Amino acid sequence: MKLKQLSVFLENKPGRLSQPCKALAEAGINILTLCLADTEQFGILRLMVKEWEKAKSILEQSGCVVNVSDVLAIEIPDRPGGLDSILSMLEPNAINIEYMYAFTLKRGNNAVLIARIEDADRAIKILHQKGVTILNSTTFHTLNLV
Amino acid sequence: MNESPIHPDSYADFLCPDELQRIQLYRLQVIVQSAYDHVPLIRQRMDERGLKPQHIKSLADTAKLPFMQKTDLRDTYPYGLFARPMKDVVRLHASSGTTGKPIVVGYTRDDMKVWSSVMARTFCACGLSEHDVVQNAFGYGLFTGGLGAHYGAEALGATVIPISGGNTERQIMVMQDFGVTAICSTPSYFLHLIEAIEAVGTGFKDLKLKIGVFGAEPWTDGMRAHIEDRIHIKAYDIYGLTEIIGPGVATECALQSGLHVFEDHFLMEIVDPKTSQILPDGEEGELVLTTLSKQAIPMIRYRTHDITSIIPERCACGRSIRRINRISHRSDDMMIIRGVNVFPSQIEAALLKVEKSLPHYQIVLSRREGLDQLEVQVEVTGDMFRDRVSALEQLQKKFSHAIEHVLGLRAQVRLVEPQSIARSQGKAKRVIDLRKEGATP
Question: Same domain for A109 and A51?
Fold first, then answer.
């Protein structure tokens, strides 16, 4: 249920983002989705890719420092209130979402929310009970290939 | 003939060289005997060389004596080098050491008199007298600067305001309201004060300030020009170190052309920092000092690691005690940041407290608004990297707390990408000092 997300440390300087992207591009690795968190001094590039192990070693070879963390890919209805419906399932259970980012699909009426959750196992349980779809890696990786 | 009056406190500055050397020899023989009798470390080192105190028959025999290092004070912490029992010691001071433990120095009642006297002579040479109102903005406490300057100014008969460092607003108020004519501080703090005075818009016109006595950290002629230009005072450089006595080892005179060493109390040599061979006057090398009259801790041939040269010519001010050039740099990696002695190894130790394996790091020193800024850049490793911003910010905080704990100085920690710190032959250059000449505040 849990997917692997890669994070890359970047200094907050012009041009820093292109190095990891270029390394992945040269290796023919497609970025499914990404999110960039930044502070005044540094940034964290978070990436979802299909072959995360290969991508990790390519990034590391190119001089990046890479962290692997577990995230959930949660399917949400692509309509007003779609995100809220998910959040309102987690909040009453005091489940803390550390960060999240979303993308919509090329087809269909759903969006996918990538969420980094402190207590992922409990979140999975709760979301399943409510009938929410959490994508496994096979489903997730074929999504954008449609 | 120079007919300007000599302050009686300063008479020893004008001794004829022959008299001076005979006083030096007398005191050297006494201090070596005392060190041999009461300091096991010195006795052992002299014995190893088959050297007895009675072998010191001339000043040239100083060269036979073993050197002392800062590590000697650290290794014998706290009282191992004391030559007098604690009942005779009336004062302790301390400065930061290389491992977080400070070095401790002591003074007998006579040592305090000598210290007051050399500081009074310092102020005399800088043109102060009993008519001056002195704002002493050196820090009071374990640091020797505050109390050293305090006792010296009092001994001279000046009016001392023991305001200590910090609290810039109050400093400005006191300077204006109390009719301050002279100030003692680190040069960087004074630059900060100037900025603050300019910022409040009161200007310098109403100030009576005419003399600044600055020390405890290296500064440049460029900074002096900057200060004298902006606030129209005379800015003097003084030199001293805790291990020897604190401030009061050497001072500039009105001519601001080198620092007169109080040779009747401190015997100076310049040695090659690598070979330890004594260098002739005028050649640049490491300053080595012997305390000729210090009872509590006799320091014999102490390696200061400060690089300078002796100016053999007699100064036009008339003083016969010789001058050294302003300290240009050091022979070891010690940095002086806001008056605090800092070794890169201390910062390394602090980083290691947070991370088990030492990350690549670089220390960047700069000056902002006259104040030294310490930035430590740390290369992020896979072990410490997390995907959450809060985790990284917490890591930065942990690093800077650890450094502050060891040094007592606030450090800005910046996380940088792997391999971003330039390396030469695989080794990172540890310190980048942007405070040097030309780096105007």
Answer: no
Under 8 Å between Cβ of B108 and B89: yes
Domain of residue A56: give its range: 3-69
**CA–CA gap between residue B257 and residue B234 (Å, rounded):** 13
**Three-class secondary structure of residue A24 per DSSP:** helix
Residues B166-225: tens digit of each pLDDT: 898 999 999 999 999 999 998 878 888 888 888 877 777 789 999 999 998 778 787 898
Determine, yes or no, domain membership for B425: yes
| CB of B292 closer than 8 Å to CB of B31 | yes
Residue B99 lies in domain: 8-332
Look at A9 and B419 and tell me if their CB atoms are within 8 Å.
Answer: no
pLDDT mean over A64-71: 94
| Nearest chain A alpha carbon to B383 | A67
Interchain CB contacts (distance < 8 Å): A and B: 52
Please say which residue of B312, B332, B352 terminates a domain. Answer: B332
| DSSP element (H, E) containing A137 | helix A137-143
Residue A112's CATH number: 3.30.70.260
How many independent structural domains does chain B possess?
A: 2
Radius of gyration for the alpha carbons in chain A, expressed in angstroms and rounded: 16
> What does the H/E/C string look like for chain B?
CCCCCCCHHHHHHHCCHHHHHHHHHHHHHHHHHHHHHHCHHHHHHHHHCCCCHHHCCCHHHHHHCCCECHHHHHHCCCCCCCCCCHHHEEEEEEECCCCCCCEEEEEEHHHHHHHHHHHHHHHHHCCCCCCCEEEECCCCCCCHHHHHHHHHHHHHCCEEECCCCCCHHHHHHHHHHCCCCEEEECHHHHHHHHHHHHHHCCCCCCCCCCEEEECCCCCCHHHHHHHHHHHCCEEEEEEEECCCCEEEEEECCCCCCCEEECCCCEEEEEECCCCCCECCCCCCEEEEEEECCCCCCCCCCEEEEEEECEECCCCCCCCCCCEECCCCEECCCCEEECCEEECHHHHHHHHHHHCCCCCCEEEEEEEECCEEEEEEEEECCCCCCCCCHHHHHHHHHHHHHHHHHHHCCCCEEEEECCCCCCEECCEECCEEECCCCCCCC
**A126 lies in the same domain as A77:** yes
Q: Domain boundary at A54, A69, A84, which?
A: A69
Q: How many CA atoms lie within 13 A of B294 on its CB side?
A: 28
Which chain B positions have a beta carbon within 8 Å of A39's beta carbon?
389, 392-393
Task: Give B84-126 pLDDT, tens digit per residue.
Answer: 999 999 999 998 654 557 899 999 999 999 999 999 999 999 9
Nearest by CB: A41 against B381, B385, B415: B415
**Which chain B residues are within 8 Å of A63, Cβ to Cβ?**
417-419
Q: Which of B387, B393, B399, B412 to mutate to test the interface with A (most CBs of A within 10 A)?
A: B387
Q: What is the pLDDT of residue A146?
A: 43
Identify the CA nearest to B212 among candidates B199, B225, B196, B202: B225
